[in-house]
Design brief:
The chain is α/β, with parallel strands linked by helices and 309 residues long. It has helices spanning 12-23, 56-62, 78-83, 85-106, 140-159, 185-194, 214-227, 245-256, 280-286, 294-305; strands spanning 3-7, 27-32, 47-50, 68-71, 112-117, 163-168, 170-172, 199-202, 208-209, 211-213, 233-237, 243-244, 262-265, 274-275. Uridine-diphosphate-N-acetylglucosamine binds at residues 76-78, 117-119, 169-170, 182-185, 188, 200-202, 207, 209, 245, 268, 271, 275.
């Protein structure tokens, strides 16, 4: 039985990870400021440390005695990085350095698996995007995630802390909060379409994304923690399958048995046109099985919203 720190554990992805860790009998400590996460997301038995990942003292206390850290705390919205550049930077990059520094101060060379993002690539001209593609982020969010990867290399190389970064593509699933304007497109569309409300499509709706189910992300996180590489490692977590925003809306409407009511809005600033990853390297290194198909995942989201599960 191991003890894990999960930063951002009360959030969407973090709470699914906590569930998986608890289900195998591990001890889970969550550090979360509950800014977008919710205490109610946490399974029984998890210890919540209500604190800020960019607060060095809070993090130093939270890492005591852990066997490894899953670092998910972040302001996960690309949009928020535009309106609150420095505030998001403080959490997204400084918070990551604070975690590595806390481990160094505590003399702990335990592994850290952290959430990077497809946003590090920016607008990549060739898809699917492999890990070797140029990293040219177009958003503050993507720039900070790239910064996390660079500091993770330092943590491994200079301080002997094994690190694995996972570049998540567009993650979706139950518990992604549909009420937040900064939430992912799938939770927003499922919530609106299932009650017959109109949806906003930014731009022409032909931009594509690689939608990956949260269960596959949890499998990737758990496998990455077992890796403990001597050199800092980074992998994509994605499906390799493109879906346009309009196709997505159509799938959801068909599954929900609702009509589509689309309003086109101007494209978002800093928006990436096509984001589809190559899953091959991560799948081989982490021993992952085929990812969930979109329609199954969407059904789970719609069931969850309908109060099922
Ligand atoms: P989320 O907002 O549900 O979870 C983030 C959690 O971090 C929340 O519980 C929030 O309260 C917490 N948090 C935020 N600022 C904090 C701070 N200063 N101190 C402590 N806790 C703080 O988002 P999510 O979708 O679960 O994202 C989890 C991670 O995955 C993030 O690092 C995000 O950048 C990354 N990611 C997500 C996606 C996606 O599509 N959802 C894609 C790529 C990467
Ligand atoms: C998402 C993640 C980000 C992650 C990145 C990795 C969220 C909130 N953001 O960014 O953390 O790093 O993937 O690839 O999960 N759209 C609409 N109408 C809406 C909402 C969105 O048309 O109401 C469109 C957007 O313009 C975009 C697409 O849907 O083209 C996806 O948007 P969104 O879910 O916000 O995610 P990303 O910006 O791709």
């Amino acid at each position: 039985m191991s003890t894990w720190l999960v930063t951002g554990g009360a959030g969407f992805i973090g709470s699914h990870l906590c569930e998986a860790l608890c289900a195998r009998g591990d001890t889970v400590r969550v550090l979360d400021d509950l800014s977008t996460g919710h205490r109610a997301n946490l399974p029984d038995g998890v210890t919540l440390v209500h604190g800020d990942v960019a607060d060095p003292d809070a993090v130093l206390e939270a890492v005591q005695g852990v066997d490894g850290c899953f670092h998910l705390a972040a302001i996960a919205s690309v949009e928020r990085g535009i309106t609150d550049w420095f505030g998001t930077h403080r959490t997204n990059l400084s918070g990551t350095i604070v975690l590595f520094e806390a481990l160094r101060r505590a003399g702990l060379q335990v592994p850290v698996v952290y959430a990077s993002s497809a946003a590090v690539y920016g607008d990549c001209p060739t898809v699917p995007i492999s890990e070797d593609a140029p990293r040219q982020p177009l958003s503050a969010y993507g720039a900070d995630k790239l910064g996390c990867e660079l500091h993770a290399r330092v943590a491994t190389h200079v301080h002997g802390i094994p690190t694995v970064g996972l570049r998540f593509f567009n993650v979706y699933g139950p518990r992604q909060d549909p009420r937040s304007p900064y939430s992912g497109v799938i939770s927003i569309f499922c919530e609106r379409i299932s009650r017959g409300a109109p949806i906003d499509v930014f731009g022409d709706g032909r931009q594509t994304r690689d939608f990956v189910y949260v269960g596959d992300i949890v499998a990737g996180l758990l496998a990455a923690m077992r890796l403990r590489p001597a050199e800092a490692a980074v992998f994509n977590l994605c499906t390799g399958r493109p879906t346009s925003v309009l196709e997505l809306a159509g799938h959801i409407a068909a599954l929900a048995g609702s009509a589509l009511d689309v309003t086109h809005r101007p494209p978002r600033a800093g928006e990436i046109r096509h984001s589809v990853g190559s899953p091959a390297r991560g799948r081989a290194a982490l021993g992952l099985v085929d990812p969930a198909v979109l329609s199954d995942g969407l059904r789970n989201v719609l069931d969850w919203m309908a109060g099922g599960r």
